[in-house]
Amino acid sequence: xxxxxxxxxxxxxxxxxxxxxxxxxxxxxxxxxxxxxxxxxxxxxxxxxxxxxxxxxxxxxxxxxxxxxxxxxxxxxxxxxxxxxxxxxxxxxxxxxxxxxxxxxxxxxxxxxxxxxxxxxxxxxxxxxxxxxxxxxxxxxxxxxxxxxxxxxxxxxxxxxxxxxxxxxxxxxxxxxxxxxxxxxxxxxxxxxxxxxxxxxxxxxxxxxxxxxxxxxxxxxxxxxxxxxxxxxxxxxxxxxxxxxxxxxxxxxxxxxxxxxxxxxxxxxxxxxxxxxxxxxxxxxxxx
Amino acid sequence: xxxxxxxxxxxxxxxxxxxxxxxxxxxxxxxxxxxxxxxxxxxxxxxxxxxxxxxxxxxxxxxxxxxxxxxxxxxxxxxxxxxxxxxxxxxxxxxxxxxxxxxxxxxxxxxxxxxxxxxxxxxxxxxxxxxxxxxxxxxxxxxxxxxxxxxxxxxxxxxxxxxxxxxxxxxxxxxxxxxxxxxxxxxxxxxxxxxxxxxxxxxxxxxxxxxxxxxxxxxxxxxxxxxxxxxxxxxxxxxxxxxxxxxxxxxxxx
Amino acid sequence: xxxxxxxxxxxxxxxxxxxxxxxxxxxxxxxxxxxxxxxxxxxxxxxxxxxxxxxxxxxxxxxxxxxxxxxxxxxxxxxxxxxxxxxxxxxxxxxxxxxxxxxxxxxxxxxxxxxxxxxxxxxxxxxxxxxxxxxxxxxxxxxxxxxxxxxxxxxxxxxxxxxxxxxxxxxxxxxxxxxxxxxxxxxxxxxxxxxxxxxxxxxxxxxxxxxxxxxxxxxxxxxxxxxxxxxxxxxxxxxxxxxxxxxxxxxxxxxxxxxxxxxxxxxxxxxxxxxxxxxxxxxxxxxxxxxxxxxxxxxxxxxxxxxxxxxxxxxxxxxxxxxxxxxxxx
Lengths: 288, 254, 330
Prior knowledge:
The structure holds 3 protein chains of 3 kinds. Chain A is mostly helical. Chain A has one domain: ABC transporter involved in vitamin B12 uptake, BtuC. Chain A is 74% helix and 2% strand. In chain A, a hairpin with a 2-residue loop joins strand 1 and strand 2. In chain A, helix 1 packs antiparallel against helix 8, helix 1 packs antiparallel against helix 10 and helix 6 packs across helix 8. By secondary structure, chain B is of the alpha/beta class. The two termini of chain B are 37 Å apart. In chain B, 46% of the residues are buried. The model of chain B has no long low-confidence stretch (mean pLDDT 88). Chains in contact: A-C, B-C.
């Protein structure tokens, strides 16, 4: 393979994992913007997406066309439950307490997953075939193409949601000023629940898309999710374009350093660059 | 003592302070008055280093302090209270007052961790000073209460004790009687008068005109970030511009 | 006139901290005589080692009001530093421990100076990222660290001819260090520095206006907590003679945070309780192995929901308020 084909291959791989990180990062941002916390349970929404897909396909025998949206919807519901039972009852406004709270919720979710699905690694079939496509000499899995297309559609729908629908506008209003929003009669409680639902949906979608490439286990979401968090921070926490940009950058960083330096140290490279960016721009690339 | 020259500050494009200049003499009480949003709290924040003025100079005893961070200004002997109480709810009343002696306490981690006899001695002295200050403000009995369990008026007094305990050169009082009833207000007024008699220099931001006219040696009037009058209380009271800007608007809103 | 009884009570009150430390020390001194089961001693030794880390972390979280999800990384550098320094490089154990702690303080300074300018979420990410970086290096750099299978053959510590090579010897070693750390932390929080830190945790603006150099204080506490973690790591390596990366991943950092929360943010004594509870919990609920994570998580969530300051601190605060009010009404 020529140098150009290598590069193309790496870039494509990077953009694909970047798309996954972007979806997870968007989930982090949605919750942060309306409630002002880092929701570490986002990490487990990713694993749950894969788990629900697995269950739908193999335990209930559903076809992929039903199991996939079903899994995403399932995680959305979990998101609402988490907000209702875990976050809303909190009496503290201290961000330290709230961050630790979501860490606790995340541990509980992982414990439940371990209990229901066990600790073994499982495999989920891809959406499309397994035969790699060849584009300009680079080999590309059809699942990767599916990831890019579905992520693009999801981001498009998200933009329409935030600009065109009443609930989306309410969420933006709460994000910009919660007190003012509640004064003008926006149901802040419902908006917060919706933000968790949306975060669940985005995390679940990332999960159903990525688990066919990785393997599925109760803790598969931890590393993916933390990289999603890193992507959100890299882009500027709370900024939607930042989340997408951060995701793609992190994905590229990883695949390029794996390709040209060492695949063993790709995580090191990604997080060292993240730390350096934070130290130079403490609010991330697009942060205010 | 304190000299402000052409202090200005903008929030975004909006001017919060424009060319504010005045002087304070040692041992005097200067009252800073003006309608809501006139920039009084912003000015106090700039003097105490919580905020920073964008132009102009602030000098404490001929020392420019405008560019110093808050903790350095505190170390120079400027203490303050806050408009919306900033007590440490989890600490006891005594410990809250002791935090007012942060500058006097040893700052080294190593010395503190070893707690050698010299430090014990110093700590005991600081405790006595703090208890004395609490006694001054009539709170000695509640020294070991958690600060969160005090009434609002008592909390205000703890904050004043915390500000005065270090015997500072300059005390900035941001609305010490806001939200208090008549009786509590009279009590605070008594404390302010006593501190003035003890020779403390104070800058007092207050809406309560009765209190201001009672204790102030000098009154500075701010309106929309501008200093529109400065002088003795009886002179300022009859200044037509003040009546126009301050009282006129009060009538309009009343 | 003060009677003899009053005098005694006043003496007890005045020296309550020192006396409690003394009582605990005496108890620890005779503990191996009462408890001879090496397994149980091993558990209490692990509590001591973790307590050293968590004491420092509680200063950082509970007093300075900052967040760290990466203290297992400092614990790791201490452990692997001692392991590599004594085994691969053949250095003497105690000096290596000190050199490693100094190196960790420099790492903490280099990380803390820029990172502590960050607030909340960004700081959480920076510390988490640091832990992931350190963990990945431990796993991947197998020529030096032994990789995922771990590093073995670390020598035991010794003083003169006394070799710390069994659980009873470990007990005296690790608890001595833990009690010294406890005493140093208690002294710190009872001083002007400690009050400044407590002020910082509650309100940064007010603390600065009272003369606390907030930035410097945060960096100093960060370094102090990192050094404590490093020393604990060195002890860990020398007591077990074996270390592997799994003892230092981000979940361990999270466990440290849980210990702080259970003990109570800003409670030095609570730290011992929180560390002991979370270390012993898996033993007690062994029968419920599969529910372990759920119970861990539930404890954390329930405490944070109902006593946001942490279990011990929350209860102590409530009792104090209750006593103050009842005296007032009486």
